[in-house]
Design goal:
By secondary structure, the protein is of the alpha+beta class. 41% of the residues lie in helices and 16% in strands. It has a four-stranded mixed sheet. Strands 1-2 form a two-stranded antiparallel sheet.
Length: 190
């Protein structure tokens, strides 16, 4: 059995990326509350002092929903296993903390699997069940962190959405995953 684990450097990169995204989203809010820049009107010819303009131009707003739509986390699994390794706890904790602060967003959890026999009806059925159980494992972890089950959308894709071909063990390990991302409930969600 091939074992796939994130290196320490990989974990750090994922944590830094998630932290950067969260800080980027909240930075506009915190800077607007505490800092009001002053602008000088250089078109006036005051000899002693420039006159301060108190009107601050409106900040450029980035739609928060667009940023959340780009945030996606993947949890990888061993072959034929529905539990994930502890190395993903830190990233899922950051994701759940962010989710608790934004309770208007739903969370879509898509389980995936890999198979050598994508056309076999027996293997399709097994892979759909396996992928749904993997999604349920991640959902259970998020629920243990305080996220309401009403916000979670679980989907079992089976082997229908591979990232890579299933021809080699190295390629299949990328397909045994659960993708977790935010969904804006105002955009077509119940």
């Amino acid at each position: 059995m091939i074992e796939y684990r994130l290196t320490k450097k990989g974990k750090i990169v994922i944590v830094i990326l998630c932290t950067f995204i969260v800080l980027f989203i909240y930075s506009g809010i915190s800077f607007n509350k505490n800092y009001a820049p002053q602008y000088y009107d250089y078109s006036k010819s005051d000899t002693n002092e420039q006159q301060v303009i108190l009107q601050v131009p409106p900040p450029i707003k980035v739609e928060e929903e667009e940023l959340w739509e780009k945030l996606k986390i993947a949890v990888y699994f061993e072959a034929d296993i529905t539990s994930f390794d502890q190395q993903y706890y830190e990233v899922l904790n950051i994701f759940s903390d962010t989710a608790l602060k934004n309770d208007r967003l739903k969370i879509q959890i898509e389980g995936n699997s890999a198979t050598l026999f994508p056309t076999s009806q027996k293997h399709k059925s097994i892979n759909y069940t396996l992928s749904l159980l993997r999604a349920q494992a991640v959902a259970d972890y998020l629920k243990s962190k305080g996220i309401s089950s009403e916000r979670l959308i679980l989907i079992g894709n089976g082997s229908d959405k591979p990232l890579k071909d299933n021809l080699s063990p190295e390629e299949r390990k990328f397909n045994r995953r659960v993708d977790i991302f935010f969904v804006n409930k105002t955009k077509g969600m119940p």
